[in-house]
Amino acid sequence: MNLISTFPKDPYPIGWYVLARSSDLAPGDVKALEYFGEKLVLWRGKDSGEVFCQDAFCLHLGAHRGIRGWVTGDDITCPWHGWQWNGEGKNSCIPYGSKQTKKGVKARVYPLVEWCGNIMIWWAPEEGAPTWTLPEVPEHGREGWYADEVRTWEVKCHPQHPVENACDFAHIHYIHGSTDPARQDYFRTYKHLFFSKIDVLYGGEKEKTFLTPNGGKIASFRTVHAGLPIAIIRWDDELWPTVLITCFTPIDDKRIQYNFQLFSKRGEGETGDEWQGRAARMLKMQLKVAEEDFFIWENMKTMDAPAYELSETGPYTDLRHWASQFYPSTAATYVPDPNNALLEGEGDERTGRLQLREQTAA
What's the confidence (pLDDT) of residue 78? Predict the structure, then answer.
C-alpha cells in the first residue's frame, strides 16, 4: 500500500471553515470577504434569517455585490443595476427593460451551516454538497459555563502547519515552557476524524499555581479534528473543564486566518460576564500558547523529507497520510491506513468522540 506522508502542495484542503461569527451578521447585513484566494459575498436574508455565500461578482457586468450591495427579502441586490440573485445563485429579478430573468446563468454557491456561534463554509474545488457534517459540541452554550472568548490572527503559513501541533509533543517543552517533555498517548483516525491525546506536566516543580493548587500535575488535552481545519480540544476535571475550538481558514496561498474560540466552566459562586478563577487562568494561558507558535510557522521551511526522531515518525507520517484525503491532488488515491484507522463503532461522527476506554470524559 502506498501511504502518502509528504507535506501537501495544494494550498486549500477540502472541508468546513469558519467564515464569520453568527452574531456579526444581522438580517439584511452584507459582507465582502476574501478567502481561498477568491472574493466572496456573504449575507443574511431579511425574511428567513438564513445565511448565504456566493462568488462576489454579478454575472451581469461584473460588479462586486458585497460592496454597497443590499438585501431584498432573502436575495442579494447588485448595486450597479439592481439585478437580484437568490440563495441558489440564480437571477431572480431584473428591475427594468423586459424584466425577464436570465435563466442560463448561475453564481457559484457555497454551502453554509451555523455551528457553535460560527458561520461555517464548505470549501471544495468544485461546487457540491458537503461530504460530512460537523460534530456536536455539547459544552457550547451549556449552563454554568462562560460564554465564548474569540480571537483571530492573520498568520503567514499553510493551514496544515498548525494542525501538525496535534502530533508534535516534543515542541511543548521548548516553545511553551513545560518543564518536562510531553508524551503522545494516542493518535487514531476514523474517516474524516482524527483523535489525539497528549499528556503534559502543568505547574512544573512549583509548590502550587493558580491552575494546580496542589502542585505540579500531569494532565491531558484531547484533540479531535473534524476534517483538517477544525480542531476541538478538551481539558477535563484533572486541570479545569475547558473547550477550545480552532480553525485555520486560508485567505490565499500564503496566509491563513487563525480562529480561536474558548469556553470554560464557571467556578463555584462565579457570576457575571467577566471571566474569573481558574477559567480566567485557562483563557490567559491558551491565548499565550496560541501566539507562541506563530514565529515558527512564519519563518520555517517545509521539509519534504524531514529527518524525524524515531518517536516522531509514526504520529507525523500518520497525520500526513490521513490529511492527504482532503487535498484535490491526492484525495482520489487516498486509502486509510489499516494499522492506524479505528474499527467501525469506535469513532462517532455525530459527536466526534473516540469510543475507547481512555476517552470517556463528558
Answer: 98
